[in-house]
Amino acid sequence: MRLAVCLLVLLGMAAACGGDSGLQTATITLADVAGFGTDLTVELARTQEERARGLMNRETLAEDRGMLFVYTADSRETFTMMNTLVPLSIAFVAADGTILDVQDMEPLSNGPYSSPRPYRYALEVNQGWFERHGLDAGDRVEIPPAVTDAAEE
Torsion over CA of 90, 56, 25 and 121, rounded to 10 degrees? Predict the structure, then answer.
């Protein structure tokens, strides 16, 4: 019994440190212009509240993880790094999956970080992830249709 209580406390502490956000996840595929692809597991931020919270107050983000901000219509929202401790890179992605722009974002900065054109998705990953995988503007993101089904404005 005591062991079970200790495990529950440890799991709660891990969740508080950003281990389990409670958000649904999905696997997306990113491919460069040559067609070379890499999979990425993303947490889905599909509601206004989830998008506003984003990756705030996390101390780490696993290398093979990210967060996909999903909108039901093209957006021009800007991003900041308020209360965000992890250096991130963001890709603004068009409705057809084309990466429009990639930017590095510094922890705790007010930005604002914005896309040069309206976008349907924003993908945040550890800073430098896109560069390490040879991805940039013009490359593609394959997003499963089920990801967009539950998005709300």
Answer: -30
- 63 domain residue, yes or no: yes
Q: Are 29 and 141 in contact (CB under 8 A)?
A: yes
The tokens of 11 are what? 């799991």
Residue 136 structural domain: 21-149
| Assigned domain for 54 exists | yes
Q: Is the confidence at residue 39, as pLDDT, over 80?
A: yes
- CB of 102 within 8 A of CB of 135? yes
Rounded Cα distance, 124 and 10, in Å: 27
Can you tell me whether residue 35 is helix, strand or coil? coil
Q: For residue 139, what is the domain's CATH number?
A: 2.60.120.1140
Amino acid of residue 14: A
Confidence band for 142, pLDDT divided at 50, 70 and 90? very high
pTM surpassing 0.90?
Answer: no
On whether residue 139 sits in a domain, the answer given is yes
Domain count, the chain: 1
